[in-house]
Fold each of these.
Amino acid sequence: MTEVRTALSDAFNDSLVNYDYIARKIKDVDPRMAYDILYSEVAPVCFTNIAAAMLPVGTGFDPGSLNIMIEGRLATRENSWFRQKLDKALIVWLKYNYGYIWKKIVGALTERPTDY
């Protein structure tokens, strides 16, 4: 799970995104599950990295720290009615605002050679 989350977090890096790399890393994951992980787990933690007006130069998210942040958010969501409602609204907004990310990942998944 950490590898999938880390790969999907690359879409929120402030440098040029390699969607082919992301597609290779998630190719064995059910697309519905990858979509859900992208928008309900990764995006709520990572979207501010590309939403900021002035972006710091970065090389990606540390897999360990990313996983801890996601797990913490999921635990809070599970235990808080308010967080559940807040995150539900946030996820709808993230899907709308960053829907292009999934489209580019799907494009990379369908365009890549099958003999990897």
Amino acid sequence: MLNIMSTLSTMLRITFIAGFAVVFLAMAATEELYSDKNDNITVLELLQNEPTRKQYYECFLGTGPCVTADAEFFKEHLPEAVLMGCRKCTEKQKMDFDTMTVWYIENKPDEWQTLIRKLTQDAQNIKIEKSHLLNEGDDRGCPRGIDPR
């Protein structure tokens, strides 16, 4: 009888640990994607229209205004997308990013290098800001209101 109780106890612990692991992995895997509200845009058409492409490019670099809501949306999310390998992108956004990458490399490689440097710098700033927010608070590096004990 004692052996059966020990076996049941062990099975319950294993089931609990396995269940916890499944829930944790599911939560980690369901990272929220960027909004798909601009997925109807045809990126290749934008890239082939020189005045429009230049307007977006200057918006992304911060050297010109973002005159459309979608340009503002992309400017906000491009650095993080570059930093995280487009992990939060929809499938359409991943295809569009690939299209943009290939187009710039083939047609405007110098502009592409400038844009990537800017996006990488912005991405690093995002990373630093997030790190700073997490480490803000006390001299132990704990966020305000969080006690590590």
Amino acid sequence: MYNLLTKLYPKAIRLGINLPKYALYRNVHTTSATFQFYQDETKYKTIYKFPYIKQFVLMDRIKLYQTSVTALCAPFSIILHQLDYISGDVVGFIWALGFSMCLTLYSVGFLTTKHVGFIYYNEEENLVKVAYGDFWGRRKEIEIPVKDIVPLSDLPVSWTDGLFIKFKRFSTPEVLRLNFRFGVVVDKELMKKIQ
């Protein structure tokens, strides 16, 4: 832990300045020691984790990178065609390839966006913290009272139930996605409390 803090705040350590409390868990995902401290400090227990959340978030980021590359290359190819550097067939190929790749990645992105990676439970305050990947490929965390979660038994049957189960709240129409086929329920008793 000390080695990690010296890397993050070398000048503060040399000067003997007291580090802010958030510095101890600023980089939550770098080592298991800092993650353990974060859990102890806030009294949250992990009850669900999805092991492929990093790949899902990466897919969301690749989708955006591909869109920006297509947005740059498509007009540039028209400029090169106007200057007679490339033929019209090459321009058509560049546009078709770029847009077909974008279409494919956005179709796959439909499945990977808003997928729940972790669910943490705080018994003292009866709160659930849900961590998921958003459209931009960033981790988002929201704290939800257990009473606000729609039970899975109250959800209607959907054609997407084979891929993921919807995680809904009463207070908002936003829908998150859970995958019990590949996701791991760490604590089944606590998971039953929030369903």
